[in-house]
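Per-record layout

source: Pontibacter flavimaris
name: DinB-like domain-containing protein
length: 187
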Amino acid sequence: MRSMTTLEQLSQTTRSLYETVVHSFDSLSLVDLNHKPASDSWSMLECLEHLNRYSRYYNPALAKAIAQNSTGNYVQSITYSWLGKKSLEMVRPQNMKKHKTVKHMNPNNSQLTRATLKEFLQHQQELLQLIRDAVKADLSEKAVPVEFFQLLKLRIGEALEFVVAHQERHVQQALRVKQQLAQQAAA
């Protein structure tokens, strides 16, 4: 797969997630945004806060990796390591299997405000810039430490794809919470 096509897809998906969050959540009340379908499930804001916690780690890690590997001799295709394949398989939105998140990335029962939405949108802008910058990087370079075990590293291209797929997964989760709330209100 050509990296330009993949990077363009990642950019398009990121812009789409930005627009979805603005149009789907921005007009909701804080009470609705914090609505939880069940005590052990996440609210819409908790879904976004989970992504914010990942972005606080991965955006700087990606920025560093891209900057250090933008020598002009860049590899134009994204190749996948076993870790990259496994990570992507786990977070793809089509994979409906629930996965337990590490404790410090679990926002369950957090007191969240509209600042969570604002931070998410800021992270999306940063990610769009990282994707633009990645055009000049060696996407096959193993340079992005995995958040929960930093001795393991993802390749730049697969790390970008992982971040975007993970965001897609949890924005879809937040949309399902919104839909459940609307169904309860209609009943």
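summary: The longest helix spans residues 156-186. Helices lie at 3-25, 30-33, 44-68, 82-91, 115-133, 156-186.
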